[in-house]
Amino acid sequence: MALIVQKYGGTSVGDPDRIAAVARRVQHTQAAGNQVVxxxxxxxxxxxxxxxxSGSVHxxxxxxxxxxxxxxxxxxxxxxxxxxxxxxxxxxxxxTGSQVQILTDNAHGKARILEIEQTQVSAxxxxxxxxxxxxxxxxDEHRNITTLGRGGSDTTAVAMAAALQADECQIxxxxxxxxxxxPRMVPQARKLTRITCEEMxxxxxxxxxxxxIRSVEFAHKFRVxxxxxxxxxDTGDGTLITFEENPVEAAKIAGIAFNRDEAKxxxxxxxxxxxxxxxxxxxxxxxxIEVDMIVQNTAHDGTTDFTFTVxxxxxxxxxxxxxxxxxxxxxxxxSGDDKIVKISLVGVGMRSHAGIASQMFAALAAENINxxxxxxSEIKISVVVAEKYTELAVRTLHTxxxxxxxxxxxxxxx
Length: 414
Ligand code: ASP
Ligand code: MG
Known about the structure:
Blueprint: E1 2-8, H1 16-31, E2 34-40, H2 46-57, H3 63-87, E3 92-95, H4 97-100, E4 102-104, E5 113-116, H5 119-126, E6 130-134, E7 137-139, E8 145-147, H6 153-164, E9 168-173, E10 194-196, H7 197-205, H8 213-222, E11 226-230, E12 239-242, E13 255-259, E14 262-271, H9 276-286, E15 291-296, E16 303-311, H10 315-328, E17 333-337, E18 340-346, H11 356-366, E19 373-377, E20 380-386, H12 390-400
Parallel strand pairs: 1-2, 1-9, 2-6, 3-6, 9-11, 10-12
Antiparallel strand pairs: 4-5, 7-8, 11-12, 13-18, 14-16, 14-17, 15-16, 18-20, 19-20
Helix pairs in contact: 1-3, 2-3, 6-8, 7-8, 9-10, 11-12
The protein binds aspartic acid and magnesium ion (MG).
Residues 9-10, 41, 151, 153 line the site of magnesium ion.
């Protein structure tokens, strides 16, 4: 008998009919001889609705109370799904994060899971019941309700699977797997049957929204077998996230991710001296602003330019802080741009193939797309370009790296 953790996202439980369909799938999985733990998100739109509701009462609600509010979304779905299962004659029991005792730290709104109590869940499973757990939430050591950040139900599912040593964690969503890039932008995008966990991590951290990045980190750390599947179709095995890799056989590029959620800031003419980078980024870090790419140019005439990117939402605040730092450093100027996109090529095959970067730059040059910043890791190359080129750049690279699905009939290509 296998133990399967299934996670259903917001659209998969978006209305009563869909909840009934999920219940049938769960029942089916159990009837095939498996123990099943189900983790659910709030019904689609619900977390946004609750966030807006809180905003109409307090522009910056106390984080503890916001978590109490947001956690209700998932509580609704666990109850409804358990009822739908009961209606099918399938014994099920729902639990909130605090009932299970999903213990987290106390960082409200972005809490990290520390430990999961398994006694009750295991007892239910052994008694033949389906266990339905609210995603996205836990409790801290003082029994405060916490939430894990947007998309956090993925992380709940992977963490449950790790704690219970499940045979597979299946993430059911509204796409039927992980694609070479967002199929809404590139209709020729191909579904991947497999992707390594390392590649998935880079894709998730570079803007791919299929899985919450923390869930992939968790899967990586605890080697949880993870599969992404569609809850709307019965066919296909989705995409398996694997741990073994064979760089020689691997395709050069697994996929292309893009992130429009960044903005770029530059301080020009800072002294070329020890401590300057720290002086610039210290206040940014102290203000809890995450920095992504960083580029410092070689010095000429004793000064240098320092450029970095932050989340677009932090742009104004970061720019104010930087203005202050620039004065202290007698820097020449602060400039910035929040109309940029970061586009990343990801693939473990990069380790064994040379010339990927130049191939990428050539493809962009051929379309006259100017590259503003470049960063690389062992299995990723990212460039920053003007946001208006997003679609052109992604499609161009998709074709240049042979990722297009040639089997798609022409008329389906919008
Ligand atoms: N309901 C939460 C959200 O919308 C968590 C999740 O869906 O994973 O972000
Ligand atoms: Mg979600």
